[in-house]
């Protein structure tokens, strides 16, 4: 039995989320079906990171086990089966005990906002035509890095043992074409956490929440104090980091 990691990217607009769900169209379910079709046996993958409905990924990973040899054109063949909004970017051989979710050292997300109406960005960003104090936004992002308990920014009904996350970086930046981007990297994230952070920081940027009140919101450890109202299409999972040397590309595919 051999284990392989699949590196994928996808546009999440048409999906009910990443994870397989009964009676719902998911990214993972679509990938499982494509790989199963090629392998001619049922294949069930395990994902590294779950994304909500409408959220995109520039990089995500899954793993699966098989006793069968991979098709010599595995990458090409799977991509021919997958729909246009999902791409298989790489296939890697890993030790059989390596789990795509638990072996990850960190994950990085970006959230995109644009302030001028643009029909070409409506499914890949959040149209936010309001004035923002970017100095306050940046200060709030720095404050985030000083905390570890993010109970406030976890949606209810999350079955987790701890709400602690180690934030490795948190800051706002601009793209070359003027989009405002929130950048955050951590060892783990809670359900709805990035959108909760963005929505609450936007309240700071608009002057509806002071920096002192932002501290209080975090310290309250109460999800009703956060603002989760920002839409999913602005959120991208951009990188899943694994230990150096773990992922060995499969040759001749």
From TrEMBL:
GO terms for biological process: tRNA pseudouridine synthesis. Keywords: Isomerase, tRNA processing. Its EC number is 5.4.99.12. One of its GO terms (molecular function) is RNA binding. Substrate binds at residue 109. The keyword tRNA processing applies. It comes from the Bacteria. It is an enzyme of class 5 (isomerase). Gene3D superfamilies: Pseudouridine synthase I, catalytic domain, C-terminal subdomain (3.30.70.660), Pseudouridine synthase I, catalytic domain, N-terminal subdomain (3.30.70.580). It catalyses: uridine(38/39/40) in tRNA = pseudouridine(38/39/40) in tRNA. It holds the Pfam family PseudoU_synth_1. CDD domains: PseudoU_synth_EcTruA. The active site is at residue 52. InterPro entries: PsdUridine_synth_cat_dom_sf, PsdUridine_synth_TruA, PsdUridine_synth_TruA_a/b_dom, PsdUridine_synth_TruA_C, TruA/RsuA/RluB/E/F_N. Homodimer. Formation of pseudouridine at positions 38, 39 and 40 in the anticodon stem and loop of transfer RNAs. Belongs to the tRNA pseudouridine synthase TruA family. This is tRNA pseudouridine synthase A.
């Amino acid at each position: 039995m051999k284990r392989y990691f699949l590196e994928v990217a996808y546009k999440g607009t048409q999906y009910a989320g990443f994870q397989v769900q009964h009676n719902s169209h998911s990214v993972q379910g679509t990938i499982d079906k494509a790989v199963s079709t090629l392998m001619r046996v049922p294949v069930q993958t395990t994902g590294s990171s779950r994304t909500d409905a409408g959220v995109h990924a520039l990089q995500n990973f899954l793993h699966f086990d098989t006793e069968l040899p991979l098709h010599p054109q595995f990458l090409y063949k799977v991509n021919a089966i997958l729909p246009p909004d999902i791409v298989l970017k790489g296939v890697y051989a890993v030790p059989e005990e390596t789990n795509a979710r638990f072996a990850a050292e960190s994950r990085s997300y970006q959230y995109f906002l644009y302030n001028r109406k643009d029909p070409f960005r409506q499914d890949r960003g959040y149209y936010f035509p309001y004035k923002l104090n970017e100095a306050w936004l940046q200060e709030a992002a720095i404050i985030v890095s000083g905390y570890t308990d993010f109970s406030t920014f976890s949606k209810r009904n999350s079955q987790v043992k701890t709400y602690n996350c180690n934030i490795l970086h948190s800051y706002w930046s601009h793209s070359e074409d003027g989009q405002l981007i929130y950048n955050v990297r951590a060892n783990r994230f809670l359900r709805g956490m990035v959108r909760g952070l963005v929505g609450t920081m936007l309240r700071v940027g608009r002057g509806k929440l002071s920096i002192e009140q932002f501290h209080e919101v975090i310290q309250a450890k109460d999800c009703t104090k956060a603002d989760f109202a920002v839409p999913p299409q602005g959120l991208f999972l951009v990188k899943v980091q694994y230990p150096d040397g773990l992922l060995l590309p499969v040759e001749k595919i």
